[in-house]
Amino acid sequence: MQKAESPKTDKTELADIETNDNGRPHRGFSSSLWTAGAGLLAFLLPLLVNIPGLDAPGERMLAILLLAIVLWVTEAIPLVATALLVILLQVLMISEQALLPVGSEALRAAHYYAALADPVIVLFLGGFMIANGAAKYAVDRNVASLLLRPFAGNARRSLLGFMIITALLSMFLSNTATAATMFAVILPLLAALPEGSARTGLALSIPVAANVGGIGTPVGSPPNAIALGALVARGEGVSFLGWVLLAGPLMLVVLGFAWWYLAHRYIPAGVQLELEVEVNFDRSVPATVYYVIAFLTIVLWLTEPIHGIPAYTVGFVPVVALLATRVMTGDDLRQLQWPVLWLVAGGIALGAGIGATGLDRWLLGLVVWERLPVVALLALLVVAGLGMSTVISNSATANLLVPLALGLGTGLPIDPTAIGVLVAVSCALAMALPISTPPNAVAYATGEVPIKAMVGSGLIIGGVGALVLALLMPWLWEVLGLL
User: Fold this and answer.
1) The predicted structure's pLDDT at residue 297
2) Distance (Å, rounded) from C-alpha 290 to C-alpha 271?
3) How far lies 314's CA from each of 127, 238, 300, 342, 443, in Å?
4) pLDDT tens string 313-330
5) pTM score of the predicted model
6) How does pLDDT run across 219-264, given as a tens digit for each residue?
């Protein structure tokens, strides 16, 4: 029976590699130069060639969209830099302050700048404050250690415990931070195990559960925030609890299947595993204040339909309260994931520009979507989200697909909320490569997860999740009256 002592490993040791905003290795200068040149060509094409059916603002927005696609796919420049470039170009090219005339219907420049402080950004800001506070006061690690205790003994049961706790934490904390936290907890356990399938299965369970758990709440992952922001901009907002009810059943189904697959593929029956982890909650006054504020924030998020306070307003409460009580300081504020927030803002601004210039209607007119069965259209969106997110950032994929997908839904018998949730969730199901998601990058950096195992599990688990998402979830949402 294997034992593991309480972990002392620092999270930063788990990914000692030079990476960009998405947890991927930086590109070389020459490679970035070539891809930036390709982006410039894509940008100039709609400006130099007359596009039938598009007026000048639409052509300019198409140029911005094509540039964003190239830069987000190739990562010639950091993802957040592309997001901010989108906002700047929209101000210079299609706002009322544009360098060339746009027309009386142009949105004000302030509208595009406002994406940086969109209510969804405020919601995510609150989530990041809670996540950073959890790391500062070791709440995440202690909660994980405490909840693991009932799962000691049978290795397959321990695997289930790892996945449930990882998914639960990932619903409210960054999935990257959750993966790093859980690896810090189980690395001593992995080191005590002999090399083999059981060791691989336990290591694989962490990124899989972190990715799946992130779909469960609006603050679970950036694609969720991007979809929520786009829906709010169209007057189609969904509450915090509403998102949980929509995405939660899929999260549970995929998590259950993932556990079954990993347990039967990697963990031999009858293998025993004893967990000995130390739980030592901080009992200081600042930590206690943090516990209370974080708990009340989560409760208010989940009870939004009862009290009526919007989730993004609730999300601003911990920001103010934690700073006012000095539980968190300016140094903590500087450590928040601002690049992620600005990346989400770029997606919100991109969607606003596509709608304001009529580019969405033009794109919709390129294909007779009405001839496609609704199921086929939904499956196409899920496959596009899953496929693109496998090879590029899931946030970049959501930034590109969500505005276009919502435009496709115009005039069709599909609820816009269903489309937004489908695209966002499909991005989170992409987990076949180390570059697919930051949790995968963290897992690969530990050296415990072979590429072949990650690809196999990612394709099978993500594929099953995509099938359930496209074919069953819209029907379930309709039957339960959630839309």
Assistant:
1) 92
2) 39
3) 10, 15, 7, 20, 33
4) 999 999 999 999 999 998
5) 0.76
6) 888 888 888 888 887 777 788 899 999 999 999 999 999 999 999 9
2 - beta bridge partners?
273
Q: Quick one: how far is CA 141 from the chain centroid? A: 21
Query: Which residue do the tokens 């790391």 mark?
Result: 135
